[in-house]
Recover the amino acids of this structure.
């Protein structure tokens, strides 16, 4: 048996990498300033009471995602939502099938929980699409959990609902579940519905982080069928008491003004994706499907390993991307669209200059 993973090297890198002026490394939209919302200190009063499973925030999530309050488990960001969901669903030695490439902490958490991790490939060409046939090939009757991200991190690819249903049917055949990290899904416009509606096999996680610019709130959640949600709440009692209550209160206010929080973000992302698509199509050294949804894309560079590109970008152009080795594909890199457009245009210019230098 291989050793359990006890840390996320990617997360450590993401937190402590040198900062640059043009951070195409971002997978979030610009931070939303809470002082744009009508709130006073009274709204945040800590009254000393204990608020287990704080209902008001779950009511707002229930309304926005069209599920029952009882199906919602609160967590610190999608990160802890993923961990809690996995900790509830994985017993040591269980076979867990995870997409490749994927968000590295998901792999780490599965290993930490003692899972036997197996992988299935996203279809690199043309756009890292989800292929239920490939999942079927890698599945066995010992598979207990299938995990994907949708939108896919790093590529931004949106899974087709029929393919998600097919995954659900595959899982049901062997009494497994499908965990879908939907932290980027709300970037799709018009909004795509959560896979939590597709059947009891589906467990979905999300937060106010990526698309809403409210990562500081750490407001995350899990959507699961009610008895499973109850098991998650009970397990969570081992990890902590309640959520940070002021944050829950702020999250309620954010949900009450969610259109204002989103504001111009979908338009900005659409504009930046178009700029990126025009940029990429004009470059023979990049291979990537046009970005249609989301906050990130994952082009392949013909110049070799992209750590070299990132080092050059940082040293010479005060700009950075995420090297593909963090997604097990070192000749790709991830680029984020969540910058104000003027800044994004300048960043693209610098990326173009760096690519030219290394040609
Ligand atoms: C797929 C995925 N899930 C979860 C997270 C973390 O989300 P949160 O900040 O809500 O914990 C990230 C952040 O990069 C991510 O890419």
């Amino acid at each position: 048996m291989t050793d359990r993973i006890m840390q996320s090297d990617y997360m450590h890198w993401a937190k402590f990498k040198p900062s640059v002026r043009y951070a195409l490394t971002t997978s979030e939209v610009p931070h939303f300033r809470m002082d744009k919302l009508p709130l006073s200190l009274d709204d945040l009063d800590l009254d000393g009471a204990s608020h287990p499973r704080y209902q008001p925030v779950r009511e707002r999530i229930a309304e926005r995602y069209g599920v029952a309050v009882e199906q919602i488990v609160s967590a610190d960001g999608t990160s802890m939502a993923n961990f809690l969901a996995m900790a509830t669903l994985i017993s040591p030695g269980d076979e867990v099938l995870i997409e490749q490439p994927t968000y590295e902490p998901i792999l780490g958490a599965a290993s930490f929980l003692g899972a036997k991790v197996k992988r299935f490939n996203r279809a690199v060409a043309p756009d890292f699409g989800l292929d239920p046939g490939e999942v079927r090939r890698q599945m066995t009757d010992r598979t207990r959990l299938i995990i994907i991200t949708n939108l896919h991190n790093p590529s931004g690819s949106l899974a087709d609902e029929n393919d998600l249903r097919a995954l659900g049917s595959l899982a049901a055949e062997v009494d497994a579940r499908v965990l879908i990290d939907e932290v980027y899904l709300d970037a799709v416009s018009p909004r795509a519905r959560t896979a939590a509606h597709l059947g009891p096999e589906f467990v979905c996680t999300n937060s106010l982080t990526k698309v809403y610019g409210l990562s500081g709130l750490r407001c995350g959640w899990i959507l699961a069928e009610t008895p499973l949600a109850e098991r998650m709440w009970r397990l969570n009692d081992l990890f902590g008491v309640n959520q940070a209550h002021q944050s829950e209160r702020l999250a309620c206010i954010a949900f009450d003004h969610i259109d204002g929080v989103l504001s111009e973000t979908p338009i900005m992302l659409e504009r930046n994706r178009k700029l990126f698509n025009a940029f990429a199509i004009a470059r023979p050294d990049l291979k990537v499907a046009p970005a249609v949804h989301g906050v990130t894309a994952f082009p392949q560079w013909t110049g070799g390993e992209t750590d070299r590109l990132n080092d050059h970008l940082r040293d010479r152009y005060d700009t950075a991307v995420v090297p593909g080795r963090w997604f097990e594909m070192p000749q790709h890199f991830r680029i984020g669209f969540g910058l104000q457009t003027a800044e994004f245009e300048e960043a693209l210019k610098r990326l173009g200059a760096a690519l030219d230098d290394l040609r």
